[in-house]
Amino acid sequence: MKRIHLFEFEDLSWFPVFLRNYVTDFLRFLANATKMFLPILPVLVKGIHAGKTGHFIDLGSGSGGGILSLNEALLKKIPHLKIWLTDYYPNLEAFEYTQAKADNIEYVDKPVDARNVPDELNGLRTMFLSFHHFKHEDAKLILQDAVDAAHPIAIFEAQDRSLPSLLAMLFSPITVLLTTPFIAPLSLGRLFFTYIVPVVPLVALWDGLVSSLRTYSLEEMQELIDDLEGGDRMNWEMAKIKSGPGFVIYLLGTPK
Predict the structure, then answer these.
(1) Contacts of 235 (CB under 8 A, 6+ apart)
(2) pLDDT tens digits for range 105-163
């Protein structure tokens, strides 16, 4: 199936911030509850060591993704680990919530563009469930910026353009309805726009389906790499790893 770059509500500048946060909070809860990213722990450790700083900068963090569940496992291997959360639309309430759960997690309270990461944010760059948000040219700029800065980069996606992935997304509204009471911080607004006016379940459905349609295949990621200037200054590896009933697609680039 050819990649289709439709819009996601959470990408739209006019989409209300509080609704965007409700949706990304759901994704954070799901990623941490299922611990979907634990199978890629060795990949992440390898990238952190390649960064030579003992920390990583998460780009497009949303509400923090599966960082908390990963952090517990990572600290056992890298005791002095430091994690920085960033986003173009920073969800400060969620960042503060995540920071309060772990002393080694910090965040940037200003917009950070994954295509042009500030020099002071050095070390491994990560993107969890966010690389598909970018069109081909912007996706290439993200990789090119890492190459130019000689910083490692790790990209992780948990969906693709297959029929099983698309079918799984059809159940996302039900998952939203079942999990909302357990998503912190709980608010009357979250309950209202989930159960009374079901904006959050419907947005999760649309954005989930579109996420699958926009996800880059391994072959397409290789094409992006081949199109980079100086891309051969990095070692690249990519694969699809089993995670529970699903999988995680990853791309890791480390300086030679």
Answers:
(1) 253, 254, 255, 256
(2) 999 999 999 999 999 999 999 999 999 999 999 999 999 999 999 999 999 999 999 99
